[in-house]
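Postdoc handover notes: sequence design on the structure in folder B. Input tokens:
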């Protein structure tokens, strides 16, 4: 079956919690997300109640027309998830904050993250004028690859770098700040 990228539905809750509860098998959970939290270093498992709280927060923002979210589905299974949320830049309601796609590891390097981002970019036209995002990865080669992919294929421009921004497992992690005009 083909890959389907579509809007997030309330019925996706179980699939997303199941995907996120296996943090060793999901790429993209490598930084603090203001809604989802720090999933990669969380000491507890992603329980249904933890997942429910996070999912409800995103869904509430969608219902308030302050966010939009998408999933990628293959053979009826949700394999990736991402969202854009507004209101994170004070005085700038035209800026949407794009959250890095979270992708099941076995589907990495298949362009799925790019497809979700393209879907969200198109969907956000008219709602936002600018999308901003933050990239982070423990591996500098992986980070460079992500930066190049977002810049070349998706129209993002790097506007800032925060080296050694936070520490995980005794390793300092950089953040790359990027934006694109829609």
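Designed sequence:
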């Amino acid at each position: 079956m083909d890959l389907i990228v579509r809007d997030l539905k309330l019925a996706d809750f179980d699939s997303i919690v199941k995907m996120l509860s296996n943090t060793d098998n999901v790429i993209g959970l490598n930084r603090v997300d203001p809604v989802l939290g720090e999933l990669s270093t969380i000491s507890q498992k992603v329980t249904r109640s933890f997942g429910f709280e996070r999912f409800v927060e995103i869904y509430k923002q969608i219902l308030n027309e302050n966010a939009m979210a998408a999933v990628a589905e293959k053979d009826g299974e949700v394999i990736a998830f991402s969202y854009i949320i507004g209101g994170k830049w004070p005085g700038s309601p035209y800026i949407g904050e794009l959250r890095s796609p979270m992708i099941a590891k076995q589907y990495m390097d298949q362009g799925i993250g790019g497809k979700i981002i393209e879907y969200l970019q198109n969907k956000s036209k008219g709602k936002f004028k600018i999308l901003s995002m933050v990239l982070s990865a423990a591996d500098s080669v992986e980070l460079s690859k992500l930066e190049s992919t977002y810049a070349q294929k998706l129209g993002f421009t790097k506007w800032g770098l925060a080296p050694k921004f936070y520490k995980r497992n005794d390793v300092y992690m950089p953040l790359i700040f990027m934006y694109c005009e829609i």
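Context for whoever picks this up: Residues 29-44 have pLDDT under 50 and may be disordered. Don't rerun without checking with the PI first.
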